[in-house]
Amino acid sequence: MRGGFHGRHGPGGRIGRFLEHGDLRFVVLALLAEQPRHGYDLIRELEERTGGAYRPSPGVIYPTLSLLEDEGFVVPNTADGRKQYEITDEGRAALEKERPAVDAVFGRMAEAQAQSTQTGPRIRRAMENLASALRIRLSSGEVGDAQVETITKAIDAAAAAIERA
Fold it and tell me: I need a surface site. Which of 30, 48, 53, 101 has the fewest CB within 10 A?
């Protein structure tokens, strides 16, 4: 499951801290092995398992499901009017070959989820404080060019400090 891809995801093809290039196919298969799911269910489950640190877009999940369907690893079921995907026997066999790597990905996700329960509330509170301060300042009347410049610099400085952290 490991690739040498060096695109926008960085050296080794890592997407965030969780997935290497090509891992998503097998992570999706593992989730479908647990139970049949809709595309958005997969998105929500991945977000939940990472504590919100990774949320794949529909533009990533649906093409992955189409690829898995083309490979014969999943089949869609539209019994309730929405496409729900189920893993096939071929998909289970392919998943078992990649099980150690998939388990490692789930381990990294669990670590992120555990950390987010420790740090998430404090960070959300700080973000809400910033949003409130901006709303109050911007709604308190006319904001001149000097104030806009000061606010912009403060936000840019905070973003830079976060990137360095």
Answer: 48
- Whole-model pTM: value is 0.62
Torsion-angle region of residue 55: left (phi > 0), alpha (psi -120 to 50) or beta?
A: beta
Is the residue at 94 inside a domain?
yes
- Integer Cα distance of 71 and 18 in angstroms: 24
Residue 6 lies in a domain: no
For β-strands 84-87 and 37-38, DSSP reports them as: antiparallel
For residue 19, what are its two tokens? 């997935």
DSSP character for 12? Answer: G
Query: Where in the sequence is the domain holding 152, given as residue range(s)?
Result: 121-164
pLDDT at 5: 28
**Do 67 and 104 belong together in one domain?**
yes
Query: Which DSSP string corresponds to 68-94?
Result: HHHTTSEEEE-TTSS-EEEE-HHHHHH
Write out pLDDT tens, residues 107-119: 988 888 877 766 6
Residues 128 and 145 both lie in one domain: yes
* Torsions phi, psi for 143 (to 5 deg): -110, 120
1 part of a folded domain = no
pLDDT at 162: 86
For residue 92 the two structure tokens come to: 């289970």
CA distance 11 to 23: 15
Residue 92 lies in a domain: yes
pLDDT of residue 2: 36
